[in-house]
Each structure stands twice: as structure tokens, then as C-alpha cells.
Amino acid sequence: MTASERAEAKVSADDAQPAPPQLGQLDADKKHEGGQTFSASDSDDIETSDINERWLLRKLDVRLLPAVGILYLLSFLDRSNVGNARIEGLTGDLHMSGNQYLTGLTLYFVGYVIFEVPCNIILKRTTPRFWLPTLTILWGIVATLMGIVQDLTGFFIARFFLGVTESGLFPGVVYYFSMWYKRRERQFRISLFFSAAALAGSFGGILAYGIGHMRGIVWENGWRWIFILEGIATVVVAVAAYFFIYNYPDTAEFLSDKERVYIRNRLASDSDATHDERFTWGNVAKALRDPKCWLYGLSFHTMSLPLYTFSLFLPSIIRALGYTAANAQLLTIPPYAFAFITTLTVATLSEKYSQRAIPLIASASFAIIGYILLLANNDPIGRPGLSYAGTFFAAGGIYPATALALSWPAINVSGQTKRAVANGMQISIGNLGAVLGTQLYRQNDGPRYIVGHSFALGYLFGNIVVSLVLYIILKRENTKRATITEEVQNVGDLDDWDLGDDDPRWRFQY
């Protein structure tokens, strides 16, 4: 960093608003056990040797993962249930053509892409307990209103604002995890969190099957009830989320003073989460100037098209095999259940062997088998079992590969603001693939959907290429840095960590 850049960063830091509470910024005014005041200066004096690290980690998992996992399940459910609503009469009641329906899907991702980075900046300047539940309430309201739209314009507006309001959740939670877990623990937690998307697919099929029987109640078809009931459920859970989402370890009520200090010390051993980093636009620019951040985005870009085309069009793909709408809803459940299992399995293996690129490439290759089966079946109605088997391979590879791709910047980007922006960049760049994907599965292309399946297949091959490029770049960078200096230890205790992951003492995971 040049002298001018340091000066600019200092000026920006002076002008910035205070950051949310971070580790090491312990609240000196807060009373804890025994009525004694606890401050950062006391942290070194508290004995933590009797704390069981494994038990404490499980305690964090139980408190954090189900809470944000429920929010993401609702998020994925509210964005993908439009596919279930379609086969329950949505397009007919709103008098929309197949292409107009696809335009509505595209508008969702336009809103999503535009607002992801701004949402993570807001999270950095507020708190998770305020921002994540507030976002959930907003998209729950929009999701509910989708059930009462009366024309095509209303559908377009609702889909756009659903994308806007959902855009901050995933990148926000990825950043949130980086403030609680060590680098080598984040990928598994992100995969667990993302596995809620697969559960949402299973629940979506079950709920759509049940709600579909409400046709004739108020409205002729049951698609409106899918949006209304699932949207109301989202709002109810979001209100409760203000009480079960925690901010950062320094203020989490379920931790004792000893546990706070222990978490602070273990995070300081390998990450910057304990730094009191102020927001600056200079740190935002660091992410925008880093080619690796763009490659992380491209890694998700090449997975988002298969991911969202699969989740949005699976009910239509299965129904085109000759099944009734009700049976098609039920048949979406097993592939998603399989995806949930493969996501957790691959995440466990990736964490155990500290590998990122190799299991990602293996998962993408597994999904490729699925699309080859779908494309090779020239008589899907006559041989529906072959195409249905292809959906298992596709789901079983897409979901674990996506989880791995999304965890890369959370593990490798150092500098809190840079990491928050990098996470937002990744989702924004990635979802441009989803924008394209929403236009590929046209109504007249069934039952083979050659164009859509071919694009998904090509994108999966593209993901393998990007993963290999990242693997080579990160490995070479680590090798180069090893000739300069040793790997840094206790990052959180360093006072000269201005360069973040540009510091030659930092090592990347690949």
C-alpha cells in the first residue's frame, strides 16, 4: 500500500460511522456473571483452560446454524415456489405466455444482482440482528402479495422486489459466519447453511401438493394460496428472528465471559475477525480491484445457471415426462432429498481433507452425468425413468458444488469490509448466470428441453475450468509467498494487518 493510499484510508476511516460491535471490542458497560464489569483489558486475565473447544463449537452451531438456516430455507422457498405455482394455474389465470412467465423470473434476478453489494455494506454498518430479520419481513410481505396479483404487470413488479428484498441474506450470512468461526471451519458451516436450499425444494413439493388441494377456496386454482400461506409463514418467523438472531460474540447473551475470551483467542489465531475494522470505501475498492474476487464470482456464476434452472423448472421438467401436476409436485421431493445428503457428505470430506477445488470439480462432474442422461433420452415420455434418474445426478452434484464455490471468498479474503464486498460481488456476478438461465426453458421446448439442458451442461464444464484456474493461481501464490516469509500466526493479534490477504504472510486455501 502506498503512502497516499494509507492517507486516503485514514481519512475515510475518520469520516466513517462506528462499526458494529466486533470481537475484542468488549462492552465495558455490560454486567456479566457475578455482577462484575468485563472489558477488553480484562481479557488476558480470565482463565479459559477449562473450556472444552469441541463442546463450545457445538454450542455455537446449535445457536447459529438453525436460526439462519430457517431464514434461508424460507428465502429459497419463496423464490422457487413460482415453479410449483406455474403448474397449479398461475400462467392461465394471469393470461401470460410462456415467454412472459420467463421474463418474470428474470426480473427477480435483476433486482437480486443490483442490491447485493449495497445490502452487505448496510449489514457491515448496522447489525445482523437488525438487518437479517428486517430483510426477511420485507420479502415475506412481497411474497404474500404475489398471491393477490391480478395481471402481468403486478407479477413483474412483485418478482422484481422479491429479488431486491432477498438479495442481502446469503452474502450477509456468509460474512456473519466469518465473524464467529475460524477460516477452516467456515466452509462446512456454509455448506450446512446452503443445504437448506435442498430442504426448501423438498418442502416446496410437499407444501405445493397439499396447498394445491385448496383450489376452489376463494379462487378457482390453488396457486394463490401457495404464495399467501408461505409468505405469511415467512413474516411470522421473521418477527421471531429478532429474538433468536445474535450479533457478534462480544454481545451474544448465551456466552459467558470465559467463552467470549476463548472465542476471541481462537479467532485471532487465524483470521481478522477480532480486529476493530472501520468501514472505508478504500476497503471496498480493494475487493473490486482483486482479480481473485472476480474469479470467485465466476465460480458461482458457472453454478448459478444450473442451480436456478433446476430449482425453478424441475416441476415443469417432471410434469413434461407425462405426470399429473399433483404427482409432479411429489416427484420433486426425492432429488432434493438426495441433494441434501450429497451436500453434507461432500462438505464433510472437503473439511476433513482441507480440499476445495477437487471436491468442487468432482461434484460438477457428477451433475454433468445427470444432464448427459437428460439430453441422451430421445423419448422422455416413453422412458421417463431415465430422465428422472438424470435429475438425481444433477441435483446431487449441483448443490454440493455450489456450496463449495460460495465458501471460497469467506475462507480466503482477509479484511472485514473487503470480505463483505467480495461475498456480495460473488453473488451478484453469479446470479447473472441465473438471469440468462431463466430464459432457457421455454414452454415449447419440452419434454427434452435441449436448449436449457445444453446450457446447464456447458456451464458445468465452465465451472470445472474456473475451479482449475483458481486452484493453480492460489497454489502458485502460496508457493511464491512461502519463499518470502512464513505463514502468519495469530492474525487477530497483529497491529500491522493493513494489507489483509495481500500480505505475503497470508496463505490461501484451494
From TrEMBL:
Keywords: Membrane, Transmembrane, Transmembrane helix, Transport. It comes from the Eukaryota. Residues 64-480 form the Major facilitator superfamily (MFS) profile domain. It is a multi-pass membrane protein. Residues 1-13 have a biased composition (Basic and acidic residues). Pfam families: MFS_1. SUPFAM superfamilies: MFS general substrate transporter. Residues 1-45 are annotated as: Disordered. GO terms for cellular component: membrane. It is found in: Membrane. GO terms for molecular function: transmembrane transporter activity. The chain crosses the membrane at residues 60-77, 101-123, 130-149, 155-178, 190-211, 223-245, 293-313, 333-350, 357-376, 388-408, 420-441, 453-474. This is Major facilitator superfamily domain-containing protein. It comes from Podospora fimiseda.
